[in-house]
Amino acid sequence: MTFTNIKDAVLVLEDGSRYEGLSYGSEGTTFGEIVFATGMTGYQETLTDPSYAGQIVLMTAPHIGNTGMNDEDMESRRIWVSGFVVRDASRIVSNFRAERSLENDLEHEGIVGIRGIDTRAITRHIRSKGAMRSGIFSGTASQLPAKEQLDLVLAGDEMAGRNLSAQVSTQEAYVVPAQGDRVGSVAILDLGVKKSTVNYLAERGFEAHVLPQSVTAEAIIAMKPSALFFSNGPGDPSASETHVELLRTCLKSGIPFFGICFGNQLLGRALGFGTYKLPFGHRGINQPVLDKATGRVEITSQNHGFAVDAPIEGILESPAGFGRVEVSHYSLNDNVVEGLNCLDLNAFSVQYHPEAAAGPHDSNYLFDRFRDRVLASASTTGAAL
Amino acid sequence: MPRRTDIKSVLVIGSGPIVIGQACEFDYSGTQACRVLREEGIRVILVNSNPATIMTDPDFADATYVEPITPEVIESIIIKERPDAILPTLGGQTALNAAMALHENGALERHGVELIGAKVDAIRKGEDRWLFKDIVTEAGAESARSFITHTLDEALVAAGELGYPLVVRPSFTMGGLGSGFAYNETDLIRIVTDGLHSSPTTEVLLEESILGWKEYELELMRDTADNTVVVCSIENVDPVGVHTGDSITVAPALTLTDREYQKLRDISIKIIRLVGVDTGGCNIQFAIDPKDGRIIVIEMNPRVSRSSALASKATGFPIAKIAAKLAIGYRLDEIKNDITKVTPASFEPTLDYVVVKVPRFAFEKFPAADATLTTTMKSVGEAMAIGRNYSTALQKALRSLEKRGSSFHWGVEPRTMEELLEISKVPTDGRIVTLQQALRKGATIQQAFEATKIDPWFLDQILLINEVADDIAAHKDLDAGILRHAKDHGFSDVQIAELRGLTEEIVRAARYGLGIRPVFKTVDTCAGEFPAETPYHYSSYDLENEVTPSDRRKVVIIGSGPNRIGQGVEFDYSCVHASFALADAGYETIMINCNPETVSTDYDTSDRLYFEPLALEDVLEVLHAESFSGELVGVVVQLGGQTALGLAAGLKAAGIPILGTTPEAIDLAEERGEFSRILDEAGLLAPRNDTAIDVEGAVIAAEEIGYPVLVRPSYVLGGRGMEIIFDTAGVRDYFTRIEGQVVVDVKRPLLVDRFLDDAIEIDVDALYDGTQLYIGGVMEHIEEAGIHSGDSACTLPPVTLGKRDVDRVRIATLAIAQGIGVQGLLNVQFAIGAGILYVLEANPRASRTVPFVSKALGIPLAKAASRLMVGDSIADLITEGMLPVQDGSIVPMDAPISVKEAVLPFKRFRTPTGHIVDSLLGPEMRSTGEVMGIDKDFPRAFAKALAGAYGALPSSGAVFVSVADRDKRAIVLPVLRLEQLGFKILATEGTAEILQRNGISSTIVEKVSEKGGGVTIVELINRNEVDIVINTPSGSAARADGYEIRAAAVGGDKPLFTTMAQVSAAVASIDIIQEGFTVTSLQEYALARAANLASATAQNVSSHA
Predict the structure, then answer these.
(1) Which domain holds residue A345?
(2) Residue ranges of the alpha helices (H) in B17-104?
(3) Of B333, B389, B527, the CB nearest to A38
């Protein structure tokens, strides 16, 4: 392939910034909120994490695709990002587990990407201006007049106020059997759940019932699950009042609850706290979080653009009447709420990802904690498992 | 937990002389530790025998002991200073071993001193092979499978379990003697049979081979609350089989999925917990089978290491600084990240760039050595480069090596693809360029992988670089598109010029014309997620420039690049000092360097740091980026050794102001004819000399001058290619040998000098400001002329020169400084032979001895020089108090004597047949580092220097003596004294005869070549029955014997003296050390100097009254 001077792709941000590069993955046009992810490993897990639905993800690590793609590391059935921005796309695949190349999967799944651009400049731009709407135009679309491209970007949806759960959730309920000693059953509300999460719960002895996001509280209560779990997922929690109401009903019925990420935000709202959009979110696998109970630091995997609005110190009273609540974890980088613990209910949640994938396993113990709390609750209430 | 309040004073142990495997990275880490501890209000006591280090500056500790790092000496310091704790984890293996010895001999307990940073138990678990193996298993991971066998039958059974190939290691043999790879049963039988024989315990370890596996390293930190972070992952481009220090390495790891990486992280965290490192850092090495991902834990270092320095520079996470804070009780989340100033240190850095480290070797200094890279480290330095992608970082790193042929090239390659692939099967210095040529000639990635086992991803990157080279060559015009494309893969203007048949200047002009200039990005630990407060930059041909404008007057300091023999930490010392001094004087200081081991590349040493190759193009781009704001006062080139000096002319031509001595004046000193004119005008003598541009010219010159002659190429450092030649055949042979390694041409002629036999050599470091000369120090070499000054021990003040000699030296130095037009530092080498003073050479730049002089006499030469360069005068600096009123030419009689001794790496280098290379000293420098001994008189100081370099001298035992005929007269008295001290004397027949006639009885020992019925001297040395070896080289007939003897001595770690000067000095020292060492800190010496000065002034005043 001989070199030409042609740039055949452009990334356009809603503030009018333009970054010219080369077409990557599928050719065409795509829109979404531009966010950056700082993990140096795990692009496959990131791409297949449903929480990234509706977003154009920029990888700050320059070399992407080196280890190809494999079935084992898929966090869901498909790639969810709206678009993909990298600096240096790998030309070859080198890993003993690789089955396909990344570019092959991007093309196959119709993901429009761009490569060969100053990803750091864009990251710094987003850091100072905040996450915003954007579009990638590649191939013939890259030749459209700049004004037209910008208009198309501005015609897109803002992330604030968006409910994306229906897009990513499973349509049909399914069950993953418990492994080892059975603890009980867990109803998992799939708001964009990752495969690792379901597997970790099953490994802890839970029979995992993964439910579509449209399920009703009555249906859940009727299942008599030992516990309820709310997964991570895309979108603005303030646009998910149905799920908040569902959770309130279930909490009142006394089902032990654990939520992660979007699930943490929904618990916050169910308890009566607000949520707000972070300027550019936390997306990386190096995020330090303090566990207030132990004083220890966990290096966590995070991917969130919204957060719960609550004071990180002291014991709080749930504005929605669920008793005492405390912020259990917070970010050491910017003091954002990273976990909630209900003191009068068997419910807790974290804003980060104990299932990691990608990321460190420091917080994996939370699945143990969940199991222990479910077991403790069963022994006190005498509920059947 | 906040910092411990019970620790009020800490003894920091340094790492001693620079040796292969333990270089100035420990100056960097130790310096950081000292700074941190003092900031915390802790009294810092430091011991380090290496005067060239920045940490041994009296400013960095409350009490600085430049003393040998031996358990006895450290115990004396403990008794004197009563520290609450010892911090041994920042001074390499030397410090860790010293700490363990103090534990084992009970000294720690006796004096109630605590080890901080790592506990004895943790050190033991990390270092003991078998304890560590158990820990790995407990962590749920695997070590290489192995069996201990005591018979051939057992070995055969074990081999059946392990499969071939496998590693055979006989137990307890010296230097890994007898170990090797068995590829089949025949090999196994041979190696095991020999191994069982050579092992004193008849024991052989068989281990599965992981040769060719992928190799990784993780750097971790853990605090008392069990918070653990992985600071950095490093991937070795060269697979298992090549020592990490000799491998090309890359950060972050580039060929791991998250799942595999997290496995390594999980194992690492379990191991650091089980080992119990809880107040500091460690690194853990892994091998991964590329076929199936099986992970083997290779080893761990429970301390800050060379990799930690690399990881710190690669990520911006200051491991040593944080390790020091953890050691005194802080938790990671209580420490702020220096770079962002808001986020805590309890996080894992993430990189949005690629870092490549490449090793620098010195095989040219040891022509007999086997250049194959193995698991024993052989490189003497390293360069690191940062790029936005791997191809850029790799090309920048190779360019940073400043070595001919180290960069990729596309010129004529006579070898075939098959030949190139065959050559690349054996790892050697420059293999990556061989591979590049093989790929260029059509080798496939698969073929290259089979030859080298280098991961295909890295091979494809070389292929990519070759393809871009083709694009550059084929593109119609040198337009903006192709230039950006080339630059985005790290091509230099030189390479682009080569590919397009242009000159570097034309490419650069075209590039400038099109406005293709790099931007500078920031190393910020967080991939842009948070604003960075620290200006630590690297170049990239990307979009956005991050250099913040400044309206200050700024000075740019050019560093010294990768360490090499002849250019090491001493030059970094001078650069760092200049940075400090100029910052104090109100300038904004900007450092450019590419050596990750140094203090100069610490992001808080200068106001701004550019981590860039020290090639003209790269330096000009930094200057361009800095030209947009503020005022560039100029560039300092005289402190960074030959590297910086070599850039002077190019910078000047580009219109950049050079501070201090002008490039023309620098040339004057190098240019033979001009320099002779200066000497003539001053009435000074040089040894008879001439220049030659080819072999015939050299023969004529040498015959004219008369043999022996000393030859050396122009513009080299460390006496590269410098030799004493005795006849015409030797001259011809010399030209054959230097072919391709050293350039001799019209621009760089060979210098041919009359060699002065039996002369005393003198080194002078001085400052000159255009009107006043200030002598830093006059150093007398212990070895006679002909031994490179870097390899010769020297003493300051001189011990056998009278005032008259020193006066002559002073007058001559002044004349030379004036003649050249020095503005700053000047180093002159003199020789006195038969009462005549000769000028050997003059260098208007920082010399290797600048830090030694500063430590010995308390004169901050480099700081002062940097001030002279920006226009201050010596008188100003004296008034200001930076320079003492009395310069270093006059040293009071009661002042201490300092001795500098060189440390040589002979033991590291073996010939292809496994023998140690010859350990003779000569005019070409081969030492890697130095130590200093300071005490009230010469014998004590020399004894300390020797103890610092080689361990303590024996005070009893057997001495073997074999000297050349010319030395037989001089040897009598020293040996007589040794006999009186109770040493048993062994000698060869000729030497024994002379000794007997002088009343010294000795036992005659056979030389190897005489091998009759008795034991030879080599056998005796190997049996540990000889304690000191004296062997001066004679004519070529006896050379082979001498070599065997010296090799055995070096291999057996016996003190070895190869010159009469050393022998006499050593005997005086052995005499005196019977009473042990007393220790004195540099601060105490400074107080004594001040008191002396005060009393002298008082006397002056009273005498005037």
Answers:
(1) 165-381
(2) 25-39, 71-81, 92-104
(3) B527
